């Protein structure tokens, strides 16, 4: 901290225009910077760091409390590191530090009380985004006296508990949330044990849909009680629906999809990864009239017949994620090319679809690779660097590429040539993931040159993910020497997905 006070950020030597002599050098320390410059510097810090800065001096404390630095606030310690010790402290923060500037807030279960919600409604009139985390709740606070709730919310995320029933709380807020456009209900998918346990419907979706007629984006993630009847309920009331995500809702079979598409003519994005889709229901859908442009059917066990029937009849598909499907084979790809409409496709994910041959993929990419912005061909041992080297010249518009498999290969991957190919053919590349086992990567003393070429030519590269190992360390050091500190990551803390290309990607983000 002492270094900040003495840091010499500029030395101004002022030349005298009359006699060309030099005046005495003048040192400017950070203490003499204008408040608006300091405020801008503080804006690059997270809130935990800002709280630390507030202890330096009175001036910095005033700047740290500027409400413009507290527009997006998470009070969940596991996410932000911020912990509010008491409700009184939070009420003071709402009144003094947040106020009209607050746009987004995340609250853990212990801070969700009728008093807090009432204060947010009164003191933060511009609050539009809220996350309420009930996931660790063993019991709820008493909301019988709740009379106020933020009324300008456009985004509401509720993390559900496994056993706590939410209807008492929800009944109190129904009249305040009819302006919602984005709704997230997040379940406990990752906590579910293998043993079958009794499933509780902890929130009444059929009542909720009546209170939220203006929804455009609905994300029901990993909720163990969500089934087709709940999709039918939302579709009957939310005529403006544009995006529906029910990833990892295992009871969804697709029986109401035909009705969904008939009612919701604006629906463009449907995410069904990890559901229990049945082929017979998908083959009943009128895909020719279907407005869907973005579709995720990863890990759904659909048959080859159903996949062929669907893809050859969809008129405007732009985004397809169809990984981990045994039914997706060469015949599906061939039929899609011959009788389907592929000219609008910009993103394709076929992760771990082992029944596709490299020959069929080469033919497909040779014809349509130039239009792809995102391509994922990971998880297949027979797709090696040789196929990638042959198709990279075609992928000149690619922004996202995922390749490789963590399984040990019989041969080796010549990573230097691959890096050169990426650098010379994919100038728009933003995200790249190499999933190969580090033991399969072969590189030479010239590796630095290949990495330099990638770093210099792919200036938009934001994320380069590599398996932890010696090559990762080499690449990481190279980028850090060029002051690109956050680009290179390992598979243990980052995964790349075509989801970045979804039209509603930012609306679908939750944590």
UniProtKB/TrEMBL annotation:
Pfam families: F-box-like. GO terms for biological process: positive regulation of protein ubiquitination. InterPro entries: F-box-like_dom_sf, F-box_dom, LRR_dom_sf. Transmembrane segments: none annotated. Residues 27-73 form the F-box domain. It comes from the Eukaryota. This is F-box domain-containing protein.
């Amino acid at each position: 901290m002492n270094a900040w006070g003495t840091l010499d950020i500029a030395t101004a030597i002022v030349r005298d225009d009359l006699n060309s002599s030099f005046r005495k050098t003048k040192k400017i320390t950070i203490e003499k910077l204008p408040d608006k410059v300091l405020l801008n510097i503080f804006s690059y810090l997270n809130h935990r760091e800002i709280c630390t800065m507030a202890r330096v001096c009175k001036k910095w404390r005033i700047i740290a409390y500027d409400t413009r630095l507290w527009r997006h606030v998470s009070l969940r310690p596991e996410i932000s590191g911020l912990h509010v010790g008491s409700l009184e402290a939070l009420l003071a923060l709402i009144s003094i530090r947040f106020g009209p500037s607050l746009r987004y807030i995340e609250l853990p279960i212990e801070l969700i009380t009728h008093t807090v919600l009432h204060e947010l409604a009164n003191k933060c009139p511009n609050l539009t985004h809220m996350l309420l985390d009930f996931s660790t709740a063993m019991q709820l606070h008493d909301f019988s006296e709740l009379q106020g709730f933020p009324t300008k919310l456009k985004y509401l995320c509720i993390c559900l508990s496994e056993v706590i029933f939410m209807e008492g709380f929800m009944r109190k807020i129904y009249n305040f949330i009819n302006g919602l456009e984005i709704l997230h209900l997040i379940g406990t998918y990752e906590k579910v044990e293998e043993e079958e346990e009794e499933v509780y419907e902890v929130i009444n979706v059929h009542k909720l849909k009546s209170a939220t007629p203006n929804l455009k984006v609905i994300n029901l993630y990993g909720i163990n009680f969500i089934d087709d009847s709940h999709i039918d309920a939302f579709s009957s009331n939310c005529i403006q629906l544009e995006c529906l995500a029910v990833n990892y809702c295992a009871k969804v079979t697709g029986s109401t999809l035909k009705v969904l598409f008939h009612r919701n003519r604006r629906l463009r994005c449907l995410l069904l990864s990890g559901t229990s889709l049945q082929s017979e229901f998908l083959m009943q859908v009128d895909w020719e009239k279907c407005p869907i442009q973005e579709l995720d059917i990863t890990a759904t066990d659909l048959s080859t017949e159903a996949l062929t029937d669907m893809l050859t009849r969809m008129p405007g598909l732009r985004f397809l994620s169809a990984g981990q499907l045994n039914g997706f084979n060469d015949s599906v790809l061939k039929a899609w090319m011959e009788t389907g409409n592929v000219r609008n496709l910009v993103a394709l994910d076929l992760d771990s679809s082992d029944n596709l041959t490299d020959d069929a993929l080469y033919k497909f990419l040779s014809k349509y690779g130039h239009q792809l912005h995102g391509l994922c061909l990971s998880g297949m041992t027979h797709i090696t660097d040789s196929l990638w080297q042959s198709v990279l010249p075609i992928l000149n518009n690619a922004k996202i590429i995922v390749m490789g498999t963590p399984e040990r290969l019989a041969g080796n991957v010549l990573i230097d040539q691959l890096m050169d190919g990426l650098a010379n053919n994919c100038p728009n590349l933003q995200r790249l993931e190499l999933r190969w086992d580090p033991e399969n990567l072969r590189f030479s003393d010239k590796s630095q040159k290949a990495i330099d070429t990638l770093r210099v030519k792919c200036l938009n590269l934001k994320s380069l993910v590599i398996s932890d190992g010696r090559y990762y360390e080499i690449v990481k050091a190279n980028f850090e020497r060029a002051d690109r500190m956050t680009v290179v990551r390992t598979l243990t803390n980052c995964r790349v997905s075509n989801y970045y290309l979804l039209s509603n990607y930012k609306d679908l983000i939750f944590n």
